[in-house]
Amino acid sequence: MTNIMKYFQEFLKQNSKNDESYKNLIQLVEEIVQEREEARNHLQLLEAAIRSDYDSILITTLELEEPGPKIVYVNDGFTRMTGYTREEVIGKTPRILQGPKTDRDVLDTLKKRLKEGLSFFGHTVNYRKDGSEFINQWDIHPLTNQDGEITHWVSYQHDITERKRSEKKVIDSQLEFDHLTEESKKTLIDIDEQGNIITSNKAFRDLVGYDDYELKKTKLWDLLDDKQHEHFKHKFEKFKPSDFDGVNYEMSLKNSKGTLVEVKVRTRLLKVDNQTVVRAAFENKSLQKRIMQMLKQRNANFEKMFDSLRDFRYKLMPGENNKYRFKYVSDNFYNITGFTVEEAVSLTLDEIIHNDDIEKVLAHLNDVLSGKPTTLQYRLKHKDGHYISIIDYAKPVWNKDKSAVAEIKGSISTEISSEKAVTKSE
């Protein structure tokens, strides 16, 4: 047991009213720690999955207007690609990577797509911490919670600068670099009119598990599952340019271990040394599905971790003379307080708070109205007269232009302890 955990246990013991309360608190803390460990493990799996296919990943908040979204997570690849440490970018906006050559039209398209809740694919010039330029290619997707609401944006990123310089045989010499689109992803092969794989880059070789020598002895259809083998063999035997000029396919590749990998393939035709070549750019759908599932699971774990503290949810409307009325309470309000949902909306908050706690609760809520989420332990009155010690997590809900807090949203923890209510006459 760490010194911090020993200290924390001692702190809980000193602040618990009895052994039963202490046991309940310890159990609650252990559940939270376990949930955090599960979330950390999922994050490590995510990092491992991304490491081989993406240069970097970052996750941001939703805000698109000034000052822009805030970075809440970056992986090691981001720090290597940009030169910034995690500490330097967490809480900042990705706009720190922009500079004089960053394409405004691309950014406007990006913003428009995200406002519509859609994914975005594109690239432009970005800048590292030392001021050097690189071509950053984004693949941005929305992350949603269990209610289907978008909570964050996740951005997979590639530095595609060196690809232009080091793979000249793979990139069409007739094509201007600034006009590269989605097919500039790393996973690339060139195929001749007979279906032979004549060139492959490292990403494709890693994807299928074969080396360059093995692939040069392979026909494309030999890498496909049985259902697609004859279909694509026929296409090359009866080669028609229209089958491969700007055409997309869904394929299942068999890697060297016999495992099928779902891919999306974008094809186009090139002329290399007077030879017609099919350029195929692969997008690993199997990996993206796993990544998105891990991200969803990670979100679900954090939701679950929050749920372990939540017995009922509420919204409060501020009124005159420090009177707060319930705008909404979840059904569990009745299980905790004995008041029905209908009764709750007719009550003011001070009517069910212990007299000795009203002052600190008002200060707690005033902090939220100033824009700060806070947590407070205090006592609520049950309908039958006894008091329940609870933990209240409250956060602000801003109005549409974010100029002021319109209401307070929060959650109340499970019962920790209770005591008999004392009336004023007593």
Describe the structure.
There is one protein chain. With 426 residues, the protein is of the alpha+beta class. The chain has 3 domains: 3-162 and 289-305, PAS domain (Beta-Lactamase); 168-286, Beta-Lactamase; 311-419, PAS domain (Beta-Lactamase), CATH 3.30.450.20. The chain is built from 13 helices and 16 strands. The strands form 3 sheets. Strands 11, 12, 13, 14, 15 and 16 form a 6-stranded antiparallel beta sheet that branches. A hairpin with a 5-residue loop joins strand 11 and strand 12. Helix 2 packs antiparallel against helix 10. The longest helix is centred in the first third of the chain and has 33 residues, at 19-51. The two termini are 46 Å apart. Residues 164-185, 304-310 and 421-426 have low confidence and may be disordered.
Quickly give the structural class: alpha+beta
| Biggest sheet features | 6 strands, antiparallel
Mean pLDDT value: 78
Annotated CATH architecture of the largest domain: 2-Layer Sandwich
Write the layout of secondary structure elements.
Layout: H1 3-14, H2 19-51, E1 56-60, E2 71-74, H3 76-82, H4 86-89, H5 104-115, E3 120-127, E4 133-144, E5 150-159, H6 161-166, E6 188-191, E7 197-200, H7 202-208, H8 212-215, H9 226-237, E8 247-254, E9 260-272, E10 275-284, H10 285-307, E11 312-318, E12 324-329, H11 332-337, H12 341-344, H13 358-369, E13 374-381, E14 387-398, E15 405-412, E16 417-419
Helix pairs in contact: 2-10
